[in-house]
Design a protein that fits this description.
Elements (H helix, E strand, L loop, with lengths): L2 E2 L19 E4 L1 H4 L7 H8 L8 E3 L4 E2 L8 E2 L18
Antiparallel strand pairs: 1-4, 2-3, 2-5
Length: about 90
């Protein structure tokens, strides 16, 4: 089963569709290199996020696997939500 960081813990504005940056996390360097490269769409969303670092990722795009057992992440001091109240994402 593929899990994504925060998918079941937090409700991001876009519900995991890589359309916002509310699930921005900072991955510990030791684990960052174990992740596949971020997609262009994820990079675009991260560029809109405040407080990005070299190891920033969108939690909704990080698939958990055995190699990531013990992963350490930090939450940035702030996030930005571009969606307004009442927005309902369209599933793809």
């Amino acid at each position: 089963m593929e899990n994504k960081i925060f998918t079941h813990i937090f409700n991001s504005a876009c519900e995991g569709f890589c359309a916002c940056s509310t699930c921005h996390v900072i991955i510990d360097e030791k684990f960052y290199d174990l992740l596949p490269e971020a997609s262009d769409n994820e990079i675009d969303m991260l560029e809109l996020a405040p407080c990005i670092t070299e190891t920033s990722r969108l939690g909704c795009q990080v698939k958990l696997k055995k190699e990531l057992n013990g992963i350490k992440i930090k939450l940035p001091p702030m996030t930005r939500n571009f969606y307004v109240d009442g927005y309902v994402p369209t599933p793809h």
